[in-house]
Specification:
Four Helix Bundle (Hemerythrin (Met), subunit A); 3 strands; mainly alpha; Arc Repressor Mutant, subunit A; single chain
């Protein structure tokens, strides 16, 4: 038994290769969340590999993880795209997001610190500055950063991972809200959320997140039906 323990070896896991896989995955996640891969458009393994200047292997593995998470779907051959959003799927995502993200906001209210509030103020101001142009490339990434700054403050890695999986499914469609007036209203809810956190008002924080999610979902629902 002793010799068997001495002979045992860990399976080979080259650190460099794993780090490339992780970087490719995280970069694709950011692109999906920020609407850079738009619904109705497809990307290929080769195209992503060329853009990221990596081999096809880490791209293929990242895409496998993202298709398993329902963030991407195989369209044809080696092409992938954003899965179509139905009214039923939107409703399901809305219900789950309201509960999960509302809970994270409520927990965040108990953990909020002045430095996080200051960062939220900066992000609200940045979003306000881009409302006139309705600039997706500037508004959506900052909107995501705002929400996840709050959700990280909840102090739960499990909850944060669940929220990210939900955002991967809805994030690409937030671009459709451009021109609807929702981004301006959303930023008003952001301010309400920030103020509730400042007061350590968990219920108020949950209510602000709920209002933000439900208004966006209502507009997307009308667009899908139209």
């Amino acid at each position: 038994m002793a010799s068997a323990r001495l002979d045992w070896r860990l399976p080979a896991r080259p650190v460099g290769r794993e780090s490339v896989q992780d970087r490719v995955y995280r970069q694709l996640v950011a692109m999906i969340l920020d609407g850079e891969i738009e619904p109705g458009r497809t990307v290929t393994i080769t195209g992503i590999a060329d853009a990221f200047q990596v081999s096809a292997m880490p791209v293929r593995e990242a895409l496998h993880r993202l298709t398993a998470a329902k963030a991407l779907t195989v369209v044809a051959g080696r092409s992938v795209g954003i899965p179509p959003l139905t009214v039923e799927r939107l409703s399901d995502l809305r219900r789950v997001r309201v509960e999960v993200e509302g809970l994270a906001a409520e927990w965040a209210a108990a953990n909020i610190v002045p430095s996080t509030l200051a960062r939220l103020d900066e992000l609200i101001a940045t979003m306000s500055s881009h409302l006139g142009q309705e600039d997706r490339k500037h508004f959506l990434p900052v909107n995501r950063e705002f929400h996840f700054a709050v959700y990280r403050t909840a102090g739960s890695e499990a909850l944060l991972a669940l929220i990210e999986s939900l955002w991967l499914q809805i994030g690409p469609y937030l671009n459709l809200l451009r021109g609807s007036g929702n981004w301006r209203t959303a930023n008003q809810q952001h301010q309400a959320l920030r103020d509730a956190l400042d007061k350590r008002d968990g219920r108020g924080a949950r209510a602000a997140v709920r209002a933000d999610i439900e208004e966006a979902a209502a507009i997307l629902g009308r667009l899908l039906q139209g």
